[in-house]
Design goal:
Mean pLDDT: 92
Number of strands: 7
Structural class: alpha/beta
CATH architecture: 3-Layer(aba) Sandwich
Number of domains: 1
Helix content: 25-40%
Distance between the termini: 34 Å
Length: about 200
């Protein structure tokens, strides 16, 4: 992962991603009681800001300084506060058992790095808290639209769920499946394939 390359990408346009939250993130978190949230690799802040607007106290971690500056600007414009941390999430170590929601959306890394950040993300989930992973799925390479074209940074929901369970058996996998996302393109709507994994720590865990 190259922070300088992402700085250049974020600097090249107003917003690389939509200002609105990812639809899966919104749907999976809408019914959760607000608490402390950790958004790893949060980009320009679209999910973090949406959560903050709903009462969450959000820490967002991102290694691109340009993205962090854009997130800060957008948060101020929408009158919310984020705790912004400049760090590489593949090595960043959040406090254990601190966050009621840990979110990772579209962090695509190789297998070794994925194992590391999945473990740290799992460790950060508080009692009664939720871990939510949404990423491009391995099946998207042949059957979906867009996303990374490098198979080494793609995984399946079964693989992600197994790694979480192996790292921390006290987290219960509540959902692990491939989900479809409609993408508007110049040639009309296309379907991208993501995976969604949601796990929960019991209140006594």
């Amino acid at each position: 992962m190259d922070a300088a390359a992402w700085d250049a990408r974020y600097a090249a346009t107003d917003l690389v991603w939509s200002a609105e939250p990812n639809a899966f993130v919104a749907a999976e978190t809408a019914a959760l009681a607000p608490g402390r949230a950790l958004d790893l690799a949060g980009g320009e802040g679209r999910n973090a800001i949406w959560l903050a607007e709903r009462g969450w106290r959000v820490t967002m971690v991102e290694f691109s300084r340009v993205a962090l500056e854009k997130a800060a600007t957008l948060a101020a414009r929408r009158d919310v506060t984020l705790d912004l941390v400049e760090a590489d999430v593949t090595t960043y170590g959040p406090d254990a058992r601190r966050f009621d929601l840990v979110l990772v959306a579209y962090l695509q890394t190789d297998e070794a790095a994925r194992t590391e950040w999945l473990g740290r993300a799992a460790d950060a989930v508080a009692r009664g808290g939720t871990l939510l992973i949404v990423c491009h799925d391995a099946s998207n390479l042949e059957h979906g639209y867009g996303g990374p074209q490098d198979a080494s940074v793609l995984a399946t929901p079964a693989d992600v769920a197994a790694r979480i369970a192996a790292h921390d058996p006290t987290l219960t996998i509540e959902r692990a499946e491939v989900v479809e996302r409609t993408v508007d393109t110049p040639d009309g709507p296309c379907v991208a394939l993501d995976h969604l994994v949601r796990a929960r720590r019991s209140p006594s865990g």
